[in-house]
């Protein structure tokens, strides 16, 4: 009887230790406020990277590439894939960073990263009115390492809002990162 009690107690103790020492024992669910903060950080990073980064004086250089397409080199702190990915992965997953590079036509030219020149369109003008500082988030789905939120962001003084569907993934040793942003 004592041996059986000791075995049961040992098993319970082992289960408690294993659950406390699990891979992600420190991981907590992503709070709506943190989801908005991470999305806001991504939007800011995306805008800066989309402009080529923060250039030093006389650093901006444009050139014509295939099919007479105008490109410009990224700023020095973003001019390699490694540097760009490190910067992006502060907020997004590796997969999202790769998709961003591909979708934005970023290429390597003469040893540096470059991207096509882009014109500002009406959608980007509307996006500049988005008030991320007062955005709200509503959790839609939750799994152990993945959460999806619907973010509602007011547009200027129009009394309207734009909705974004954002999927976050928990990355070991890094925390929550954006994997999909309105994709």
UniProtKB/TrEMBL annotation:
Keyword Manganese: no
Lineage: Bacteria, Bacillati, Bacillota, Bacilli, Bacillales
Origin species: Sporosarcina highlanderae
Lineage top rank: taxon: Bacteria
Keywords assigned: Signal
Keyword Signal tagged: yes
Signal sequence annotation: 1-22
The protein, known as: DL-endopeptidase inhibitor IseA family protein
Listed InterPro entries: Endopep_inhib, TA_system-associated_sf
Pfam family, one: Endopep_inhib
């Amino acid at each position: 009887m004592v041996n059986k009690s000791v075995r049961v107690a040992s098993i319970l103790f082992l289960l408690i230790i294993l659950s406390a020492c699990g891979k992600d024992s420190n991981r907590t669910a992503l709070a709506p406020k943190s989801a908005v903060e991470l999305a806001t950080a991504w939007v800011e990073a995306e805008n800066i990277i989309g402009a080529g980064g923060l250039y030093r004086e006389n650093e901006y250089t444009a050139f014509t590439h295939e099919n007479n397409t105008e490109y410009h080199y990224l700023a020095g702190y973003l001019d390699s894939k490694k540097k760009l990915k490190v910067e992006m992965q502060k907020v997004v997953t590796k997969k999202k960073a790769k998709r961003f590079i591909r979708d934005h036509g970023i290429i390597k030219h003469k040893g540096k990263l470059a991207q096509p020149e882009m014109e500002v369109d009406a959608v980007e003008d509307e996006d500049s009115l988005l008030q991320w500082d007062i955005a709200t988030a509503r959790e839609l789905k939750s799994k152990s390492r993945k959460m999806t939120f619907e973010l509602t962001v007011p547009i200027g003084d129009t009394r309207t809002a734009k909705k974004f569907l954002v999927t976050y993934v928990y990355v070991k040793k890094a925390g929550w990162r954006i994997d999909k942003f309105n994709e």
